[in-house]
Amino acid sequence: MCSLEKHGRLFILKLTGDGEHRLNPTLLDSIRSTINKIRSDQSSSQSVLITTSDGKFFSNGYDLALAETNPSLSVLMDAKLRSLVADLISIPMPTIAAVTGHASAAGCILAMSHDYVLMRRDRGFLYMSELDIELKVPAWFMAVIRAKIGSPAARRDVMLTAAKVTAEKGVEMGIVDSAYGNAAETVEAAVRLGEEIVMRRGGGHVYGKMRETLLREVLVHTIGFDETGSSGVQNTGSKL
Q1: Which residue windows are coiled coil (predicted)?
Q2: Would you give the DSSP letter of residue 136?
């Protein structure tokens, strides 16, 4: 599950526990519910969201073992993650992922769906594992990859060689904004960055609309963002 703390104008969402934080329907609903709680806070448009985790994993992707028990759950998890990514794009505040452990497959997509990615260098990697485990990548995953990884060579390595990208390599590839010595330093750096952003920025509603336009291709694949810039993200509190 996840927890939420508020420190001044910083909302800190944490995936709790020492497990792999597999993105099953229960966890995805918990994260979306927490984001909707943040969105409804009166200070949200002047705040920053930081997402982090306990343990050695940021998220190890979809709960594949659960999906094996019922194939329809694969479709459900994918739909719920698409809605969560749309939430992160539309929320009226900057977002920071403090990646303190492995972020694999859908977990990597979750991390990259934030505006900033900070990562510990002593443990963990970003890893699009689908090639290694022979799973087809959804088209909307590719939209996120294109939006978040600028270099064609880096996209090739991430998607077509299933590279396990460390924090330092991620900085070189332009995927990670900065790397830190351990988990605590990563979260502390995310807090400092969040405080700096709060001090220098204006209204979050304009920020959110600009991000929706910037990431239009992702929204087209997630919630059907139309050519006029209209989308269904205002209603993301509803359950799928």
Answers
A1: none
A2: P
- At residue 13, what are phi and psi to the nearest 5 degrees? -100, 125
Q: What is the pLDDT of residue 202?
A: 64
Kindly state the average pLDDT of the residues 52-78: 95
Q: Where are the alpha helices (DSSP H) in the chain?
A: 25-40, 64-69, 72-90, 106-112, 130-133, 139-148, 152-160, 167-173, 183-200, 204-214, 216-223
Q: For residue 229, what pLDDT is reported?
A: 46
Three-class SS of residue 204? Answer: helix
Distance from C-alpha of 168 to C-alpha of 38, rounded to nearest angstrom: 32
Taking the C-alpha atoms of residue 8 and residue 196, their distance in angstroms, rounded to an integer, is 13
Q: How many CB atoms lie within 10 A of CB 186?
A: 26
Q: What is the pTM of this model?
A: 0.91
Task: Find out whether 219 and 89 touch, Cβ atoms under 8 Å.
Answer: yes
